[in-house]
């Protein structure tokens, strides 16, 4: 009886090792590919890099929009005329991740906020002395003022 148990153990062990070899071993997976940094950003000036509250790496460019890297693939976000939920502009100057891990994007033309639930951007209307700023050109720097309000 001990011989039968030993034989079953060897069979299970062998099957497990074979499964590990197939899963993690020398058999290549043609559907899995790492894109290099140079392939993703050829001749694109990078203006800022941030990590949000969910661990995504955000790479802002000056002229080519915004890229989100999840550790394997890049997803691009760009300004589109017909899409009100796209970035304000592809010319991004700065980004800020607030205390809640939310991403804010300052670009030529205004400010955008990334909506994680909808996976799109919301344009933020800016006001000066109670009047909307319609010709706001660039958000250069994010910070906190003494009243703990987001300032530009």
Concise account of the structure shown:
The protein is of the alpha+beta class and 152 residues long. It has helices spanning 2-24, 37-40; strands at residues 46-51, 57-61, 66-69, 74-77, 92-97, 103-107, 110-115, 120-124, 127-128, 131-132, 143-144, 150-151.
Strand line-up of the largest beta sheet: 1-2-3-4
Unreliable residue stretches:
135-148
Helicity range: 10-25%
Radius of gyration: 24 Å
Classified by CATH, the class is: Mainly Beta
Report the major sheet. 4 strands, antiparallel
Give the overall shape, derived from the CA principal axes.
globular
Number of domains: 1
Characterization of the model:
The strands form 4 sheets. The protein has a 4-stranded antiparallel sheet with strand order 1-2-3-4, with no helix packed on it. It is globular and about 85 Å long. It has a single domain, classed as Methylamine Dehydrogenase, Chain H (7 Propeller). It is built from 2 helices and 12 strands; from the N terminus they run ααββββββββββββ. The protein starts with a helix and ends with a strand. About 9% of the residues have low confidence. It has 152 residues and is an alpha+beta fold.
